[in-house]
Design a protein that fits this description.
By secondary structure, the chain is α+β, with helices and mostly antiparallel strands. Helices cover about 25% and strands about 35% of the residues. It has two domains: about 220 residues, PmbA/TldD fold; about 220 residues, no CATH class. Helix 3 packs parallel to helix 4. The longest helix is centred in the N-terminal third of the chain and has 17 residues. The chain is globular. The model has no long low-confidence stretch (mean pLDDT about 95). One of its GO terms (cellular component) is cytosol. This is Modulator protein. InterPro entries: Metalloprtase-TldD/E_C (IPR045569), Metalloprtase-TldD/E_cen_dom (IPR045570), Metalloprtase-TldD/E_N (IPR002510), PmbA (IPR047657), TldD/PmbA_N (IPR035068), TldD/PmbA_sf (IPR036059).
Length: about 450
């Protein structure tokens, strides 16, 4: 695996080759990754996987025409051919007056922030095996668990480098560690399945395997003997396991591509109230050891903490340079690059600020409702905001969480859901997108 300085040399070299071959502008991204994972089932080793990959992506501009190519063959001859092919493709591409590199005056200069994203990830297979075995053993030890789908542990390290022909070069490395377990409870046709997992940038930050396994087992047992639910309108509590998904639906609606194509249910809502007044949603790329932290975006622009929603008001779109030009705005530092293709947009560590009400209070005020712990399917219309998802969870009766429920559908419209949303005070930072427990009144429940 290449070092960070070698990765910088790779992107510098390909950009120089493109300039020499006749490109007016170009940028390049290099990504290298190595990973190791171990899986076990029923106390026995099931699989060990190790992978290493390197990919170099190049984007060239000839006037207002552009093309993107990528390769995993980093030999000199292959890179020469890659540059020639990219320029030939660009000359035949249609013109796009919005395409281009990020504004030169906006590029990140100086040292990037230190985010402590890399611990080396030099875990041995034996260590990962012990973690996976400990997680599964703890899950199977929960009374009521009858079978296992297995447990796993993994570690990976990646290096990302970006260079542009107009003066930016940046590189960073990051690691990831994780443990998971999935088990079944009950027997015959009444079996229920559930899981638990945790991942972090540093191995020392991952929850103990025993705690992860025990949680998986307890979740599976809690789902046994689900009851039917009568259809109707009622309050819904979104557990933290699934509440971040609602924040995720906001992202697609405020991305530059959705706005320029007019395919967003929030198209005319910039500067308007779209959430309840107590709701604030932030994006923080500088969170130390954050799962989505980054020192710069995919076009070489600096990244800063920002409020997307401030006390319910929509403050900004997520813009790369191309969509910003089309809208007559400035890029927001949310460009994201893969090996091939033009940049898209992606958030960093996105989270909804906690409210002031304990989740127990949100539940305790409900005479009859649903606590959702699992969502199924993709029934969200990004143009209209219509929302309809399969779900499972627990019945709330007279302020108490009682019996498990499954095979229900919850439905509403995201605009109405956002405005009716009440966040609890139990935010935890465990994923790339995080939200506290959420309550939404008046959703339609379709049950038996």
């Amino acid at each position: 695996m290449l070092t960070e300085s070698q990765a910088c040399e790779r992107v510098h070299d390909i950009v120089d080759r493109a300039r020499a071959a006749g490109a007016d502008m170009s940028d390049a991204v290099f990504a290298a990754d190595r990973s190791l994972s171990v899986s076990v089932r029923m106390g026995a080793l099931e699989d060990v996987e190790r992978s290493e990959s390197e990919e170099l992506g190049l984007r060239v501009f000839v006037g207002h025409r552009s093309a993107s190519v990528s390769t995993s063959d980093l030999s000199t001859d292959a890179l020469d051919a890659l540059v020639e092919r990219a320029i030939a493709m660009a000359r035949e591409a249609p013109e796009d007056k919005w395409a281009g590199l990020a504004p030169q005056e906006r590029l990140l200069h100086g040292s990037p922030p230190l985010l402590d994203l890399d611990d080396g990830a030099n875990e041995a297979p034996e260590v990962l095996k012990l973690r996976a075995l400990a997680a599964e053993e703890a899950a199977r030890a929960v009374p009521g668990v009858t079978n296992s789908e297995g447990a796993g542990a993994g570690a990976s390290r990646s290096v990302m480098a970006i260079a542009t022909s107009h003066g930016f070069t940046g590189v960073y490395a990051q690691t990831s560690h994780g443990v998971s377990a999935s088990v079944l409870a009950g027997s015959g046709g009444a079996m229920e399945r559930d899981h638990a997992h945790h991942s972090a940038r540093h191995a020392a930050m991952v929850d103990a395997p025993e705690a992860i396994g025990r949680l998986a087992g307890e979740r599976a047992v809690a789902r046994l003997d689900p009851v039917k639910v009568q259809s109707g309108a009622m309050p819904v509590i979104f557990d933290r396991r699934v509440s971040a998904g609602l924040v995720g639906h906001l992202l697609g609606a405020i991305s530059g591509a959705a706005i320029t194509r007019k395919t967003s249910f929030l198209l005319d809502c910039l500067g308007k109230q779209v959430f309840a007044k107590g709701v604030t949603i932030c994006d923080d790329p500088h969170r130390p050891r954050g799962l989505r932290s980054r020192p710069f975006d995919g076009e070489g622009l600096p990244v800063l903490p920002i409020k997307l929603i401030d006390q319910g008001m929509l403050e900004t779109w997520l813009l790369d340079s191309a969509s910003a030009r089309q809208l007559g705005l400035e890029p927001t530092g949310h460009a994201a690059r893969g090996g091939a293709g033009a940049p898209g947009v992606a958030p960093s560590n996105l989270y909804m600020q906690p409210g002031s009400i304990p989740p127990e209070t949100l539940v305790g005020e409900i005479e009859r409702g649903i606590l959702v712990t699992e969502l199924i399917g993709q029934g969200v219309n990004s143009i209209t905001g219509d929302y309809s998802r399969g779900a499972a969870g627990f019945l709330i009766e007279n302020g108490e969480i009682t019996r498990p429920v499954s095979e229900i559908t919850i439905a509403s419209n995201l605009k109405d859901m956002f405005l009716a949303l009440t966040p609890a005070n139990d935010l935890e930072f465990r994923f790339g997108i995080n939200a506290p427990t959420l309550r939404i009144d008046g959703m339609t429940i379709a049950g038996a």
